[in-house]
């Protein structure tokens, strides 16, 4: 039933090229965006709020970079448990987006109900008949198929894929991209599943790195721009299943505190594809190495060629800068998975966690 895999999580990681392809084909046909007829018109929206919990919240943080950049539309992101009790103002022109794999998360549902009647509501869910789907005005299924492992993997990348499509739809409605730019983005997005399949091929290297990581007590994850939420997701995944203390930080925040933790016992995992900010991330990495910190650099050929003194490297395929977070989710998942295996923990049923958090 696990398709020859030892764990549901391994199966669900391996399924990603196929399910992502399916999700993208649902929303992109003949090189054009396909959205439900009643999908919201972003030309009438002047602000987006996105609300979720855990991994789904990190997917929203990535989407903020995309929607702001592609559609020139301000986006606020909040965790549902804060949003619901803060009862924030919902001014005219707001669109609210709720993201939930299960569609049953109590805090996310309560946050949605707070917005009901105040603004249009989009739900991005995996379970189509779920409470959150039923309460929304527009439902965008992520089509990941049933996710059984408690640690979310394929749902995260499918959430990102659907949010990428939503960002492109926002750009189209608002006329912020030329036809050529739109075509190029659609083209690079539809190539992501094949790149994910390539990224899965570096599993052996990641397993070796994970064996070393499993001896650490604390691990830091760093990223800039849309890689910052990936750093948060990498840290969450690792702590959930390996029980190693891990924190994700925006690379630029390092010197504002967390660098005090760094010594030769602390691995620092850096997600840094070659992009305009790469040089800045390298200087953050050098600050870590100057204090004995053990850097694991996850980057592409060009990024890795400039760095020789890191502890470990993981070489990723080249990817269009904008969509890199979808691809880099894979090493984040595999590092967590193999670290947990090395520690001998129960990967599919981590202690204290439930797949669906239907109570606060
Ligand atoms: C992490 C994880 C959780 C969920 C969170 C929200 O691996 O699975 O952080 O992402 O509990 O769940 P959903 O998406 O069902 O609302």
UniProtKB/TrEMBL annotation:
<dbReference type="GO" id="GO:0006487">
    <property type="term" value="P:protein N-linked glycosylation"/>
</dbReference>
<comment type="subunit">
    <text>Homodimer.</text>
</comment>
<keyword id="KW-0808">Transferase</keyword>
<comment type="function">
    <text>Catalyzes the first step in hexosamine metabolism, converting fructose-6P into glucosamine-6P using glutamine as a nitrogen source.</text>
</comment>
<dbReference type="GO" id="GO:0005975">
    <property type="term" value="P:carbohydrate metabolic process"/>
</dbReference>
<protein>
    <recommendedName>
        <fullName>Glutamine--fructose-6-phosphate aminotransferase [isomerizing]</fullName>
        <ecNumber>2.6.1.16</ecNumber>
    </recommendedName>
</protein>
<dbReference type="GO" id="GO:0004360">
    <property type="term" value="F:glutamine-fructose-6-phosphate transaminase (isomerizing) activity"/>
</dbReference>
<dbReference type="GO" id="GO:0005829">
    <property type="term" value="C:cytosol"/>
</dbReference>
<dbReference type="GO" id="GO:0006002">
    <property type="term" value="P:fructose 6-phosphate metabolic process"/>
</dbReference>
<keyword id="KW-0963">Cytoplasm</keyword>
<feature type="domain" description="SIS">
    <location>
        <begin position="209"/>
        <end position="350"/>
    </location>
</feature>
<dbReference type="GO" id="GO:0006047">
    <property type="term" value="P:UDP-N-acetylglucosamine metabolic process"/>
</dbReference>
<keyword id="KW-0315">Glutamine amidotransferase</keyword>
<dbReference type="GO" id="GO:0097367">
    <property type="term" value="F:carbohydrate derivative binding"/>
</dbReference>
<feature type="active site" description="For Fru-6P isomerization activity">
    <location>
        <position position="355"/>
    </location>
</feature>
<keyword id="KW-0677">Repeat</keyword>
<feature type="domain" description="SIS">
    <location>
        <begin position="38"/>
        <end position="176"/>
    </location>
</feature>
<keyword id="KW-0032">Aminotransferase</keyword>
């Amino acid at each position: 039933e696990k398709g020859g895999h030892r764990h549901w999580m391994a199966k669900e990681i391996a399924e990603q090229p196929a399910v992502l392809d399916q999700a993208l084909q649902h929303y992109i046909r003949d090189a054009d965006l396909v959205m439900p007829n009643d999908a919201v018109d972003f030309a009438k929206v002047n602000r987006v709020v996105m609300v979720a919990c855990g991994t789904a919240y990190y997917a929203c943080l990535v989407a903020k970079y995309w929607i702001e950049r592609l559609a020139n539309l301000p986006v606020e992101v909040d965790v549902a448990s804060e949003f619901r009790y803060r009862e924030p103002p919902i001014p005219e022109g707001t669109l609210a987006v709720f993201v939930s794999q299960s569609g049953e998360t109590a805090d996310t549902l309560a946050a949605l109900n707070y917005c009901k009647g105040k603004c249009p509501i989009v739900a991005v869910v995996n379970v189509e008949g779920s409470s959150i789907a039923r309460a929304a005005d527009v439902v965008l299924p992520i089509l990941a198929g049933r996710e059984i492992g408690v640690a979310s993997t394929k749902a995260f990348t499918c959430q990102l894929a659907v949010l990428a499509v939503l960002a492109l739809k926002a750009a189209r409605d608002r006329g912020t991209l030329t036809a050529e730019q739109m075509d190029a983005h659609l083209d690079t997005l539809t190539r992501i599943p094949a790149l994910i399949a390539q990224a899965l091929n570096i599993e052996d290297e990641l397993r070796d790195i994970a064996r070393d990581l499993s001896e650490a007590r604390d691990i830091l994850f760093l990223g800039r721009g849309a890689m910052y939420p990936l750093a948060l997701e990498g840290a969450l995944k690792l702590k959930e299943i390996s029980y190693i203390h891990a924190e994700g930080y925006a690379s630029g925040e390092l010197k504002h505190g967390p660098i005090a933790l760094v010594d030769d016992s602390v691995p620092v995992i850096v997600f840094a594809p070659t992009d305009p900010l790469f040089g800045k991330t390298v200087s953050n990495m050098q600050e870590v190495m100057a204090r004995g910190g053990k850097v694991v650099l996850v980057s592409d050929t060009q990024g890795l060629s400039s760095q020789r003194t890191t502890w470990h490297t993981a070489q990723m395929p080249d990817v269009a800068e904008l969509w890199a977070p979808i691809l880099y989710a894979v090493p984040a998942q595999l590092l967590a998975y193999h670290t947990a295996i090395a520690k001998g923990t129960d990967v599919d049923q981590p202690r204290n966690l439930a797949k669906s958090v239907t109570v606060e």
